C-alpha cells in the first residue's frame, strides 16, 4: 500500500501552485471525452488535503455535461491543475491532475481504469 506523502505541484508556467497530501493509491485512467483529449489522470482528495498556494486569480473554470465537476485551468498556460466536485454520496472532493505533481513519473504509478465514456 502506498505511503501518504505531502506533494507540491502546479501548472506548466508556475502561476498556479498547490500542496496536497495523498497516498496516490488510486490514479485514474479514464476514457471519457475530457480525460482522453486532455490526457488527465486524477487522484481524489478531501478538500482539507489540498491547499492552493498561488494562482487563485489565474484560474479559469470549465463546466460541461452535467456541470457536476468544476475543472480549473491556468489562464496563461492552459494546464488543468485540479477540479472541484462532489462524489455520488454528496461528499465534496478535489480531483487533482496527478501530472501536475512536481517530479511525478506517471509510468511508475498503478492506474485504475475508469469507463467514463459509458456512464
UniProtKB/TrEMBL annotation:
Keywords: Metal-binding, Zinc. One of its GO terms (molecular function) is carbon-sulfur lyase activity. Residues 7-115 form the CENP-V/GFA domain. It holds the Pfam family GFA. InterPro entries: CENP-V-like, CENP-V/GFA, Mss4-like_sf. Belongs to the Gfa family. This is GFA family protein. It comes from Bradyrhizobium sediminis.
Amino acid at each position: 500500500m502506498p505511503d501518504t506523502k505531502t506533494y507540491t505541484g502546479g501548472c506548466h508556467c508556475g502561476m498556479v501552485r498547490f500542496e496536497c497530501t495523498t497516498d496516490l493509491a488510486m490514479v485514474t485512467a479514464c476514457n471519457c471525452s475530457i480525460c482522453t483529449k486532455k490526457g488527465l489522470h486524477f487522484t481524489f482528495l478531501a478538500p482539507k488535503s489540498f491547499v492552493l498556494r498561488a494562482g487563485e486569480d489565474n484560474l479559469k473554470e470549465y463546466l460541461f455535461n452535467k456541470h457536476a465537476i468544476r475543472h480549473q485551468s491556468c489562464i496563461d498556460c492552459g494546464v488543468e491543475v485540479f477540479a472541484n466536485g462532489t462524489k455520488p454520496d454528496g461528499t465534496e472532493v478535489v480531483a487533482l491532475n496527478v501530472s501536475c505533481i512536481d517530479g511525478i513519473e506517471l509510468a511508475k504509478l498503478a492506474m485504475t481504469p475508469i469507463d467514463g465514456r459509458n456512464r
